[in-house]
Amino acid sequence: MAGRVAGKMALITGAAQGLGAAHSALLAQEGARVLCTDINGDGAAETAAAINDALGAGTAFSIQHDVTDRSHWDAAVALARDAMGGLNVLVNNAGIGVAGNIETCKFEDWKRCYAINVDGIFHGCQAALPLMREHAPGSIVNISSIAGLIASDTMPAYNSSKAAVWMLSKSIALHCAKNNMQIRCNSVHPTFVDTPILDGTAKHHNLDKQVLLEKLARQIPLKFVGEPNDIANAVLYLASDESRFMTGAELKLDGGISAM
């Protein structure tokens, strides 16, 4: 199949919905085989089934996957080898936000935020790199957030965990380059995107979803909230050989927020 990532083999975490589902679908449309993983195994299977319905059987696969559990990572990487023949694109998309400022945030929530947002990438890269080296050139794409670069008084766990993703990505990039692995690593930093996460945000604040979207849009210089494919297009670029000279970098998709 022709496409910008034709022949690539990609594993995407958090693929049951939202950004992860969009990344999976677009990479597949552009020629990759994709392994969709999520702690919601049924949701990951639905994403893969939709891709196969559109593009043909054997394009997408799925597995239930807790990114905080190294044994789950080992199983996912083994499935990538068995089902797709290898792995050369890893999209660490799974992530959560937690409520609470520095005085009200519960330590259990803090630890869970770090376990998913940061430890998941640590485990994933350790598990995936040996197989990725066999199928280089490769690309690791870590989904951070503009909140990893710009702080808020209301979300210290999310801010600091996404900042850790940003710097961890640079360290991984330098390690791979120093050891001539031909594997790049970059981070992506979106602002507000219209995904199911915003449904929960609206409910938490007792707001209609449309009212929330309008409120968020007013904070963005471009005056609109992003769509999942706005982020997936960036992931596609980083997964492709078009970005072969880009590593250890951060790609900000924030509608201009960080320029203010």
TrEMBL record:
InterPro entries: NAD(P)-bd_dom_sf, Sc_DH/Rdtase_CS, SDR_fam. Keywords: Oxidoreductase. The keyword S-adenosyl-L-methionine does not apply. The keyword Nucleotide-binding does not apply. It holds the Pfam family adh_short_C2. Belongs to the short-chain dehydrogenases/reductases (SDR) family. This is SDR family oxidoreductase. It comes from Altererythrobacter arenosus.
